[in-house]
Design brief:
By secondary structure, the protein is an alpha+beta fold. It has two domains: 96 residues, no CATH class; 30 residues, no CATH class. Helix content is 38%, strand content 15%. The chain contains six helices and three strands. Helix 1 packs across helix 3 and helix 3 crosses helix 4. 11% of the residues are buried.
Length: 165
């Protein structure tokens, strides 16, 4: 079953509070815009449940199939921050800091909730970058030659002998 609608862009309008979706109608082969009002939302609202309610709303569900719950949650957070009086750049900066993986961060020191959040971010990034068989640039067996002239750093676990294992 082919999807009838393909989401292309998703954004937010602060006045009146609404999610704006630019999508492709695959049946009529036209690009269209859908405005979905965000009702009963305040600066005290839970962004996760609000995003879930919007995504599962029978009127909007077919259109939002290609939009991740994470993105809808982000748009609701931007709206909530706006209602609290924060600037868009401050809100985006804080969001970027919270939802970006720092490769130098020691995740062994995180509590369970923070670790679950980081794993969720990594899972979404993996899915976003994943190549599937039906992707136009899919290559079945990728072989990469790494440069041999550069100095390779060794790690302690690289040098252990088999007897130590």
């Amino acid at each position: 079953a082919r999807m009838t609608f393909t989401a292309q862009k998703c954004g937010i309008c602060f006045q009146p509070p609404s999610i704006i979706l630019i999508y492709r109608d695959n049946v009529q082969e036209k690009t269209r815009q859908r405005i979905m009002p965000i009702r009963n939302f305040s600066r005290f609202s839970d962004c996760v449940s609000a995003a879930e309610q919007l995504k599962n709303n029978p009127r909007h569900k077919p259109y939002l199939e290609g939009v991740s719950l994470h993105q809808l949650e982000k748009l609701h957070r931007l709206l909530r921050d706006h209602l609290e009086g924060q600037s868009l750049s401050d809100s985006l900066g804080r969001y970027h800091h919270e939802y970006t993986i720092d490769p130098e961060e020691d995740m062994n020191k995180l509590d369970d909730k923070e670790l679950a959040q980081r794993k969720s971010i990594m899972d979404e990034l993996f899915e976003k970058n994943r190549k599937r068989r039906d992707d136009p640039d899919f290559v079945y067996n990728v072989e990469v030659d790494f440069p041999q002239h550069e100095h390779l750093e060794s790690c302690a676990w690289d040098t252990e002998s088999e007897e130590e294992m």
